[in-house]
Design a protein that fits this description.
CATH superfamily of the largest domain: FAD/NAD(P)-binding domain
Low-confidence stretches: 1-34
CATH architecture of the largest domain: 3-Layer(bba) Sandwich
Number of domains: 3
Number of strands: 21
């Protein structure tokens, strides 16, 4: 990171794929400056904590204590992949270790006046193969989000179902609309279960596997998309990976876009519903929160020592070591490279295709509920994606107010620097300004804004990902891996899948 001080204006100029000029010479409230103004944030309401893990990244060497407790399987992390592995290993002595004060990872949620909302992920493709039994057993109440509940906003217009019936109403040049129609038809063919684009990649046709040789921007050019079509698809991609298609593998980008044209599902609270149900199936005695793992080391005795700091990731707490027969790393691979002793030396190039991206999530509370689409993409704004959780059946606020969840990606290292240096009040002001621009019915109705900052939740996978992904998925001695980035994409299915795989790996290690 540069030593240059980031200013408020620097922060607000940054957006996915380029810069957006956001004037603050005058009050954003204009003529209604004397009206009751919304409560703007003075600090981030919630963040992920990295003080301890950043010290490990920077070379902190600690004196490792002898183990004071033991288990058969130690699981590092508390996201859906780790929770899935822990639930499926219920017949074993398991200890799940999470650095935050609660489990859920990027799939956490909250509730206000009876309205459930997400702090992170919120959309999926429903109970697809091979996860039907998994979904059936968890019994999560999914709601299908139909095409008319998706919208695109720009040029003073809000277009519903932009990938379907509304595509022709987009304010784009005729040639762009035609190119988008053709590209969308291709994406629909990719969404087919057998001849389409899916994991594992080895089962795809050769022509589809070949997409991984190029970037998504090269694929846009092949499809004949101009600047408007490129921006349109880039906006959809950034909702899912936090970045543009500039460096993204065309296979991964096409996979993500094909899922956007398929059937989409959510639940009140988003993916938090899955993490909460999974957590409820795991005994309380098998879960430790506010325990930040700093070192995972395999011993000559066929044991694994897991050392962590008690008290949370922003704490100077005491060190403690747990001895396990095997360990599962349910955290991003760039953490694993610093935590698992010997891993970085054994796999020095395993992460060369990975770029992690940050996200700002905001909750906007309205005095009155307004009628808007469930999900709106506004690529020309600082406020990029707007989700209205109160539009879901049975999820309206009891007091008649409204609630909007905002997602703003900050890609790559520069993005994280901008987000960490942000002036939170200025962020809140711009979000209110954008909301009132996209949804005129919201003008004067914003009560308050809360901000949440997540540092590494999304990732961009570059072309040539196969070799890297094969290496990062392989167990390392008695250590298995269970995180969605094992498949090169953060998502519900990749998290569940890797959790199941890690369970099988752990059982094999225990039997050996």
């Amino acid at each position: 990171m540069t030593n240059r001080k980031f200013t408020r204006r620097d922060c607000l100029r940054f957006a996915v794929g380029g810069a957006v000029t956001l004037p603050f010479a005058q009050s954003v409230w204009g003529a209604r400056a004397q009206a009751v103004l919304p409560q703007l944030p003075k600090s981030f309401d919630e963040i992920d904590h990295f003080d301890v893990t950043h010290r490990v990244r920077d070379g902190w060497q600690a004196s490792i204590p002898e183990p004071t407790s033991s288990c058969e399987v130690a699981i590092v992390g508390g996201g859906i992949s780790a929770l899935t592995a822990a639930w499926r290993l219920a017949d074993r002595k398991v200890m799940l270790l999470e650095k935050e004060g609660e489990t859920g990872g990027n799939s956490r949620g909250r509730e206000f006046e009876g309205c459930r909302y997400a702090l992170g992920a919120f959309m999926n493709q429903g109970p697809m193969a091979p996860f039907e039994d998994f979904f059936r057993e968890l019994n999560v109440p999914l709601v299908e989000v139909h095409g008319n509940q998706h919208a695109w906003a720009g040029n003073g217009r809000l277009v519903r179902d932009p990938l379907g019936q509304g595509l022709g109403r987009l304010p784009f040049a005729r040639t762009e609309v035609k190119a988008l129609e053709k590209a969308t038809q291709l994406l629909a063919s990719y969404a087919k279960p057998k001849e389409g684009i899916f994991f594992p990649r080895a089962d795809n046709t050769e022509s589809i596997r070949a997409l991984d040789r190029n970037t998504m921007w090269a694929e846009y050019q092949r499809l004949g998309l101009g600047a408007q079509g490129k921006q349109f698809f880039d906006a959809l991609i950034s909702a899912r990976v936090g970045d543009s298609g500039e460096m993204l593998s065309a296979w991964m980008g096409s996979y993500l876009l094909s899922s956007a044209v398929a059937r989409n599902y959510t639940a009140p609270g988003g993916h938090a519903v899955f993490s909460e149900v999974l957590r409820s199936r795991i005994p309380a005695s098998s879960v430790r929160t506010s325990f930040t793992v700093i070192r995972v080391a395999q011993q000559s005795s066929d044991k694994v020592w897991i050392t962590g700091v008690r008290g949370g990731a922003g704490s100077e707490g005491q060190l403690e070591t747990i001895e396990a027969d095997t360990a599962i790393m349910g955290v991003p691979k760039f953490y694993c490279m610093h935590m698992v002793e010997g891993l970085r030396q054994a796999r020095p190039n395993a992460l060369t295709q990975y770029t992690y991206n940050a996200y700002l999530v905001a909750q906007v509370f309205l005095r009155e509920r307004i009628d808007v689409p469930f999900e709106t993409c506004a690529p020309n704004n600082f406020t990029r994606f707007i989700v209205a959780p109160d539009q879901l059946p049975g999820n309206a606020r009891r007091d008649g107010g409204g609630l909007l969840t905002i997602y703003i990606p900050y890609p790559r290292v520069a993005g994280r620097a901008m987000l960490y240096a942000a002036d939170v009040k200025a962020l809140g002001e711009q979000i209110v300004r954008d909301i009132e621009s996209v949804y005129p019915a919201a003008r004067g109705k914003v009560e308050a804004v809360k901000l949440h900052r997540w540092g590494h939740p999304m990732l961009t996978t570059r072309p040539g990902m196969d070799d890297a992904l094969e290496k990062v998925r392989e167990s390392f001695g008695r250590v298995a891996f269970a995180h969605s980035d094992s498949f090169g994409v953060t998502g519900l299915y990749s998290a569940i899948w890797t959790g199941m795989d890690a369970e099988a790996e752990a059982r094999a290690i225990l039997m050996s």
